[in-house]
Amino acid sequence: MYKNFIKRASKSGLFLAEFSFDLARKAEHVHKRLYESFLKKLDNDEGFTKIKLYVCKICGNVEIELVPDKCPLCDHDKKFFIEIEP
Question: So where are the chain's domains?
């Protein structure tokens, strides 16, 4: 879905929209990996321990336990991460 959005924005000369869709696409890849890892734990009847989740307010990237100095997806400073209560 995002690939088509990115192409349309690019053809329309809407750089900011193209950039935003690209960040959203990258964040969705992170979300997919996290979802799959937690689903695997459920399938294996593994227990869950409480973890800290941090979300970048700019691009939606999710980090577990530690906030990086810069977001690996959008390169914004760590001050843009907020902790999410699971």
Answer: 2-84
Are the CB atoms for 76 and 27 separated by under 8 Å?
no
Q: What is the pLDDT of residue 46?
A: 85
| Residue 86 pLDDT | 65
Query: How far is CA 40 from each of CA 37, 45, 48, 79, rounded to the nearest angstrom?
Result: 5, 9, 11, 31
Q: What is the pTM of this model?
A: 0.75
Mean pLDDT of the chain: 92
* Edge-to-edge strands, sheet with 81-84: 62-64, 53-56, 81-84
Judge whether 59 and 71 are in contact, CB under 8 Å.
Answer: yes
2-84 CATH fold: Rubrerythrin, domain 2 (2.20.28)
24: nearest Cα among 39, 5, 52: 5
